[in-house]
Amino acid sequence: MSKFNILTVKEVRNETPNAVSILFDIPQHLQEDYTFVAGQYVNIKYQYEGKEIRRAYSICSSPNSGELRVAVKKVPNGAFSEFANTSLKVGDTLEVQTPEGRFILEPNVKAANNYAAFVAGSGITPVMSILKTVLEQEPNSTFVLVYGNRTVEETIFHKEIHDLQQKYINRLFVHFVYSQAKEEESVFGRIEKSTVNFVLNNKHKEKSFERYFLCGPENMIDTVGEILKERNVKEKQISFEIFTPNNDGNKEIEAEGTSKITVTVDDDETSFTMSKKIILLDAVLKEGIDAPYSCQGGICSSCMCRITKGSAEMKKNSILTDDEIAEGLILSCQAIVTSDELHITYDDV
């Protein structure tokens, strides 16, 4: 299971007026622990108003770069994001977990694939790592990026993407989409059906894409995903990571009484009794068990565990496939226990 370590901030770089990237100094003895695959993220632990919070941030550097860099966009009343954008400085230390995540690309130097990504806002962060990896490590592959923002000024990595276009002519194709600004050689509006069709039917109609990467608000991901499926794109070809979830769609689950829970974390087993009305992860953390978690909103995979006995249902699931659920995997931050006894493990996932 991933572990937290104290890392020193090596650089804080302004990417936009409301976003910074943070470069961490990785000590020699931790280099192997912080080896990552393109698209993964790290969790950052932070004390806010006397309470521990955890936030997940995608790595935007490529594995070949020798850097561990994340991007943080400031959000209104964001406990960590406001601090990172206004107060964090070189020399500060943060508790950073080792990399994890399943929105990944493992390159093949012999591949000759076409990839496409549809991203919005800070959804560019993991895709930057992925596209740079393709360009660096798959010399015969191409990458099409469709990237939505309000304005040029709010576009994270705008200059870096432009520089990559110049460096990898005929391999990297970028279509900027702006909802509040009309710019030359860009699309005005949002990433919706007309945008997807314009890019795939007009700009790149000669290409057949091996994989699609979708990252950003859940609404955008749902829209693009449905369009791709209408085009007979297989589900296994579509990878997605939600940055902003919908606020609807939660399932109402009726559960009465209590359940005896047995939890395994790092080979340590703990048992306790909980009310079935409480979210499973909340009850686990209340017992002082050091279970992994981050967003607590069902959009990362940090709190995933496996049911080995008993049953539970998720109020919302935007991540796990039907096959994974059938194998016993569940997001504990969304889980309501439905059996009188439940055994889960965070180790075997």
UniProtKB/TrEMBL annotation:
Names of the cofactor(s): FAD
| Presence of the UniProt keyword Transport in the record | no
Keyword annotations: 2Fe-2S, FAD, Flavoprotein, Iron, Iron-sulfur, Metal-binding, Oxidoreductase
Report any Pfam family annotated for this entry.
NAD_binding_1
**What sequence ranges are listed for the domain 2Fe-2S ferredoxin-type?**
259-349
Q: Does the keyword Protease apply?
A: no
| Cited InterPro entries | 2Fe-2S_ferredoxin-like_sf, 2Fe-2S_ferredoxin-type, 2Fe2S_fd_BS, Beta-grasp_dom_sf, Cbr1-like_FAD-bd_dom, FAD-bd_FR_type, Flavoprot_Pyr_Nucl_cyt_Rdtase, FNR_nucleotide-bd
The Gene Ontology terms for molecular function here are:
2 iron, 2 sulfur cluster binding; flavin adenine dinucleotide binding; metal ion binding; oxidoreductase activity
Domain FAD-binding FR-type residue range list: 2-106
Taxonomically, which superkingdom?
A: Bacteria
- Which protein, by its recorded name, is this? Ring-1,2-phenylacetyl-CoA epoxidase subunit PaaE
Q: Origin organism of this chain? A: Myroides guanonis
